[in-house]
Design goal:
With 376 residues, the chain is of the alpha/beta class. The protein folds into two domains: 275 residues, Rossmann fold (3-Layer(aba) Sandwich), CATH 3.40.50; 83 residues. Helix content is 51%, strand content 13%. The protein is built from 13 helices and nine strands. A seven-stranded mixed β-sheet has the order 3-2-1-4-5-7-6, sandwiched between helices. A two-stranded antiparallel sheet has the order 8-9. β2, α3 and β3 form a beta-alpha-beta unit. It is globular and about 65 Å long. It starts with a helix and ends in a 7-residue tail after the last strand. The model has no long low-confidence stretch (mean pLDDT 90).
């Protein structure tokens, strides 16, 4: 549900922002592990979420061409029916029965002059990193900011945990290890679990190794593609380790800002939905307290204000907020939506440290902050 809320919020904005600037008002979208398209209870899955967004854009003069790949036969049959339904509504959509790698190059060629968004959400392991780098840095050149290319990918922490067990065990499967070598673009990840096996607290060290591998994977993808990469943990509760990470890659500070905002909004909706379910079942008291969005914002605002103050002191010139997304949000990136930044700007103005409270900007990310009396 979190993943779908995020996709619904961000993909609609990506399509609208980039499609309106594209020369033929066209955006290309690929869901590489599309599943059934719609759940048996009638709720939309990732494919139908994208198709409904495409239908909305079509009604407003934009074309979002949707490509879906699914290898499992029964899932593909259901997916095909969903795609055909939206094709009858004039949505440009195609389904492929097979692995995503079999259609990836043709989709990239189709997007030669158009914005491209790749959504890769496998149940197990994702494409080899060399393959991703080929698409993101060679076929879509790393120096090319337009047309934009973005990636949202599920990096399974559970899969890393299982494969780490093969490293630690003398009976581990070398074939499985080599498959994950391909995913990671090398054998470097094995060292983390080898070190964990030598630890006196092996279970805890192995858990730490999973987190370290996920973080290193994102760093390496960023280095190899020249993109801005963020890895967002997704867990069943704030006190539990991540079940998977959503890896997001973009070349745009705008994309980075909007994605972080979408993550925060989707997370709030996710917690709210869980609370409602547990309250109706009488289990709420048994679940660890989840963060109240207002409490998180209250913690975030003064810290974001401090980040902004340091940034102004360093640059000594006016800054447009969207150009410094990670520096401004800091550790609260993806944790709080963008109104927290507006409140941080107002706080600095109230303290007499900047001359304006940011009023008048059409969007929060477009606010330009001028340095003032930073020593106040």
């Amino acid at each position: 549900m979190f993943k779908h809320e995020l996709l619904k919020d961000y993909l609609a904005q990506f399509g609208g922002m980039t499609g309106s600037r594209a020369r033929d008002k066209r955006v290309v979208y690929l869901d590489g592990y599309a599943g059934e398209g719609r759940y048996e209870n009638g709720q939309p899955a990732s494919a139908e979420i994208a198709l409904s967004i495409a239908a909305h854009h079509h009604d407003h003069g934009l074309t979002m061409e949707c490509f879906f790949a699914e290898s499992e036969e029964k899932s593909y049959a259901r997916l095909h029916d969903v795609v055909q339904h939206y094709r009858q509504r004039q949505v440009v959509a195609y389904d492929h029965h097979g692995e995503v790698d079999g259609v990836l190059n043709s989709v990239v060629r189709r997007a030669q002059h158009a914005p491209l968004f790749l959504f890769l959400d496998p149940c197990g392991l994702v494409l080899p990193q060399d393959r991703l780098v080929d698409v993101l840095a060679r076929q879509r050149p790393r120096y090319q900011k337009w047309p934009p290319t973005e990636l949202l990918m599920n990096f399974s922490m559970m899969a890393v945990w299982r494969l780490g067990g093969h490293v630690r065990s003398p009976k581990g499967s070398e074939k499985s290890l080599q498959r994950f070598d391909d995913v990671c673009g090398g054998t470097w990840w094995r060292d983390y679990f080898a070190d964990a096996a030598a630890s006196t607290h092996q279970e805890h060290a192995a858990q730490d190794a999973i987190e370290a591998v996920a973080a290193a994977y994102a760093r390496r993808l960023e280095q190899r593609t020249g993109m801005l990469v963020q890895s967002v943990p997704v867990s069943h509760s704030p006190r539990k380790r991540a079940v998977y990470r959503l890896v997001f890659a973009t070349r745009s500070q705008y994309g980075l800002w909007v994605f972080g905002n979408s993550v925060a909004r989707a997370r709030d909706e996710w917690w709210k939905t869980l609370d409602e379910r547990e309250e109706s079942s009488g289990q709420l008291a048994l679940i660890p307290n989840r963060p109240d969005p207002e409490d998180v914002a209250a913690q975030a605002i003064p810290e974001i204000a401090a980040n902004l103050e340091k940034l102004l002191a360093r640059t000594r010139q006016p800054i447009k907020l969207v150009n410094y997304t990670l520096e401004i949000f800091g550790r609260f990136y993806g944790q709080v939506p963008e109104p927290a930044v507006r409140e941080a700007v107002r706080l600095l103005h109230k303290q007499g440290k900047i001359p304006s409270n940011g009023a008048g900007a059409r969007r929060i990310r477009e606010i330009t902050v001028h340095p003032g009396n930073l020593a106040a």
